[in-house]
Amino acid sequence: MAFRALNPTFLAVVFLVGLAQLISEHVQNLLRFDREAIIAGQYWRLLSAHFLHTNLVHALTNTGACAILWYLFKPHLRPLPAAGLLSLMCLLTGTGILFFSPHLTHYVGLSGALHALIIWGCVKDLMHGDRFGLLILAGVCTKIAWEQLGGDTSATAALINAPVAIDAHLWGALAGLIVALSPLMLHPIRFRAVQSHLHSQD
C-alpha cells in the first residue's frame, strides 16, 4: 500500500537517475549540459542533464533529497501535473545556466531543479497559510546566499567528485519562485485573495 501511495513522477525520477548511472560514458556525454552543444542546437540537454550525476553518492544524495521534498510537499503534487512541473523546472534551471552563467560550460545533477521544487513548495505552503514554509524558505535563501558569497563547498565537492555548481542552485531557486508566483501575477484577483488569507493568519 505504501508503494502505491508513491507519486509516479517520483518513481520516474528514481528510475531515470538510476538508469543514467548504468548507461555508457558516450551516451552520458550526449545527454549532459554542454554549452557549445546546446548553442549548436542540442536543446534536449537542458532537460536530460538533470538526471545524470557524477557518481553514485551524487545520485543517491539527490534522489534522497527528492524523496524528502515529495513527502513535505505531497499535498501540492498531483501525479501528472508534477511531471510537467519538474520538467519545467529542469528546463528553466538549464536555461538560466545557459544565459546567465557563461563560465559553467558543463553541468549534471538534479540539485538545481530540487532547489526550484523547494522554493515552489514553500510558496505553496505560504499560500495555504502554513508558516512552516517560511522557515524552510529562509533556510534555503540563506544557504544560496552563503554559496554565492564564497562559502566553502569543498566537502560536498569531495563527495560528488566535482565542483559544486552553485549557480544551478541559484537559477533553480529563481525558477521555482517564478513558477509558483506566475499564476498569481496572471490572476490579480487570486493574488489579492492570497494576500488577504495570509493577513488573516496574523
Automatic annotation (TrEMBL):
Keywords associated with the record: Membrane, Transmembrane, Transmembrane helix
Q: How does it sit in the membrane?
A: Multi-pass membrane protein
Q: Any one cellular component term from GO for this entry?
A: membrane
Annotated GO molecular function terms are: serine-type endopeptidase activity
The answer to keyword Secreted applying to this record is: no
Q: In what residue span(s) does the Peptidase S54 rhomboid domain sit?
A: 41-181
Q: Which SUPFAM superfamilies match?
A: Rhomboid-like
Question: Any idea where this protein resides?
Answer: Membrane
Report TM segments.
Answer: 56-73, 80-100, 106-123, 132-149, 169-186
Q: Where do the coiled-coil regions begin and end?
A: none
> What is the protein name given in its UniProt record?
Rhombosortase
Q: Which organism is it from?
A: Microbulbifer agarilyticus
Organism lineage? Bacteria, Pseudomonadati, Pseudomonadota, Gammaproteobacteria, Cellvibrionales
